[in-house]
Design a protein that fits this description.
The complex is a heterodimer of chains A (115) and B (407).
Chain A: E1 3-10, H1 21-33, E2 38-43, E3 51-55, E4 63-67, E5 76-84, H2 88-95, H3 100-103, E6 105-110
Antiparallel strand pairs in A: 1-5, 1-6, 2-5, 3-4
Chain B: H1 3-25, H2 28-49, H3 55-78, H4 84-91, H5 98-112, H6 119-129, H7 135-142, H8 146-162, H9 175-194, H10 205-221, H11 226-240, H12 242-245, H13 265-281, H14 288-301, H15 310-323, H16 327-341, H17 343-351, H18 357-369, H19 373-383, H20 390-406
Helix pairs in contact in B: 1-2, 1-3, 1-5, 2-3, 6-7, 6-8, 6-9, 7-8, 9-10, 9-11, 10-11, 11-13, 11-14, 13-14, 14-15, 15-16, 16-17, 17-18, 18-19, 19-20
Classes of the chains: A alpha+beta (115), B mainly alpha (407).
Chain lengths: 115, 407
């Protein structure tokens, strides 16, 4: 069965903050309603906690880490769901139920599955 | 048979064969490659050996064999066994029935017009797969380069395969949402054939016929849906006047000089009936197709150019501009206003529209009518500094010579 990674782009919020509780509950409800087609999921800490890692030159080169990137745009990557669906129509139908789809956007990417 | 005639036969048959092959193979790229290889074989063989008595059968069976070859190569590369089912289907030598091809073509339409593809990609895919146009021809229609079109098509095929855009006709409850995109593609196909931006002929007969056929198919499958009926009406009403648009020598004949006895009365009657049915079936305000069809119907109804109900046409263009504003509609509205309210009113409207070669040509026409010949010459000269079909260019050049006499 094909798999799709649904990346949620929403306001760059701290999901642990009390004011997010109601919205987080909506996500939990989505996860329960679609448990049958979800293979994995994660909610991310805000972009303020992010670190970008680069290695200079080639493998073994100097490791350079930078703080951020802070979300400069209105919407940041805030989580993902791994959806199993028969085709893109089904995957889009499930993605359209993720609260991020109306609060922000959901990017649906097909996952390469070894043949 | 000339190479051109062979190529034409292949282009017409290609879409039918491809539509069924995509379903059998389950991959647009492989099916397209197989049809392409069959076409190359035909182009090499037919001009020498002659076109076989049943070109469709020849191409179908050859394309299936090519698909088997491609699948075998793939399976050797991957070191895996091919599942037997599709190989058995591909090894058949009988042709799919018209009903099967009919359904497959609709599947192909809905896949090409899938909402997860961008509108220009939908048009490019439809032109490639359903009309068999080359990337260079598509680039001409989309006003882009051949390389950009190739890239767009490659990305689209990749997405269809990797993201699994389904190869099926949507269920009835989803149809109203999916139809506008399909209708837009069919209308673009017709426009591409009817008014190509440049090139040897003013009218590409086969793209128009293909678009009408697709519109017939769509309307035939969904006779109660208003939008496909309106698109078919629009195409038929436009098509009905086509025989009068060019003279016997292939020169452009403007609407005011067309011999209306050459218009197809049967197509006009059918177009008007379809438009009425479409308007009757829809509860919402008229959409862009219904309005354009209504404008075409007004022209078709008029016994003469002078007998045209220009105020009604202006009213319809006003509605069209509020529903779907476009440069082309704006220009056509200015012409209608010039007829209904006077040349100066038309020129005043034109002044507020963005210039284009067509804009200059329309302006030249209105200036000439106002007796401002020197300005008309300048405008018409400017209109020739841009893309136009050869007949249209000859028409403007001829008109330019006439106007120079009057200055």
């Amino acid at each position: 069965m094909p798999q799709y990674l649904a990346l949620t782009y929403t306001a760059d919020v701290d999901w642990w903050a009390p004011e997010q509780a109601a919205e987080l509950a909506e996500y939990r409800r989505f996860a329960v309603d679609h448990a049958g087609s979800l293979r994995a999921s994660a909610v991310l800490h805000p972009t303020a906690t992010a670190t970008v890692v680069r290695v200079e030159g080639a493998r073994g080169g100097r490791v350079v880490t930078t703080d951020g990137p802070y979300a400069e745009t209105k919407e940041a990557l805030t989580g993902y769901y791994l959806i199993e669906a028969a085709d893109l129509d089904e995957a889009v139908a499930v993605a359209a139920e993720i609260p991020a789809a109306w609060g922000g956007a959901v990017e649906v990417r097909p996952v390469i599955v070894a043949k | 048979m000339t190479v051109e005639a062979v190529a034409e036969t292949i282009r017409v048959e290609g879409a039918r064969i491809l539509a069924t092959l995509i379903r059998t193979v389950g991959d647009v790229q492989i099916a397209e490659d197989a049809v392409q290889e069959a076409v190359v074989s035909a182009l090499a063989a037919w001009p020498v050996s002659g076109v076989p008595p049943q070109p469709r059968a020849w191409l179908t069976v050859t394309a299936r064999r090519k698909a088997i070859d491609i699948l075998r190569r793939e399976q050797a590369r991957r070191g895996k066994e091919e599942e037997g089912g599709r190989m058995i289907d591909l090894a058949r030598s009988d042709l799919p029935s018209d009903a099967v091809v009919h359904d497959d073509l609709l599947r192909l339409i809905f896949t090409c017009c899938h909402p997860t593809l961008s509108p220009p990609t939908q048009v490019a895919l439809a032109l490639r797969t359903l009309c068999g146009l080359s990337p260079a021809q598509i680039a001409g229609v989309l006003l882009t380069t051949e390389a950009a079109t190739e890239k767009r098509l490659t990305r689209a095929r990749q997405k269809i395969a990797a993201a699994r855009i389904p190869y099926r006709v949507p269920p009835p409850d989803e149809l109203p949402d999916r139809l506008p995109a399909v209708c837009a593609v069919i209308h673009s196909l017709y426009t591409a054939g009817h008014a190509p931006v440049g090139g040897g002929s003013a009218v590409d007969v086969d793209a128009c016929a293909e678009a009408v056929r697709l519109a017939e198919l769509l309307h035939g499958l969904l006779p109660d849906q208003p939008t496909p009926a309106a698109v078919l009406a629009l195409l038929l009403l436009t098509e009905a006047r086509r025989p009068a648009r060019l003279s016997a020598t292939g020169e452009v004949v403007t609407l005011d000089r067309q011999d209306r006895s050459h218009w197809s009365g049967a197509a006009i009657a059918r177009g008007i009936a379809l438009l009425n049915a479409s308007l009757h079936a829809s509860s919402r305000r008229a959409d862009a197709y219904q309005l354009q069809a209504a404008i075409a119907a007004e022209h078709a109804r008029a016994a003469s150019y002078d007998g045209t109900d220009w105020p009604e046409i202006v009213r319809l263009y006003d509605l069209l501009m509020s529903v779907a504003p476009s440069p082309a509609a704006g220009l056509a509205r200015a012409v209608a206003v010039a007829e209904a309210a006077g040349t100066d009113a038309g020129l005043a409207l034109l002044a507020g529209l963005p210039p284009s070669p067509r804009w200059h040509a329309v302006r030249a026409d209105l200036l000439a009518r106002a007796g401002r010949y020197a300005e008309a010459v300048a405008a018409l000269t400017a209109s020739l500094d841009g893309p136009a079909t050869d007949p249209e260019r000859r028409h403007r050049t001829r008109r330019l010579a006439e106007l120079r006499e009057l200055v």
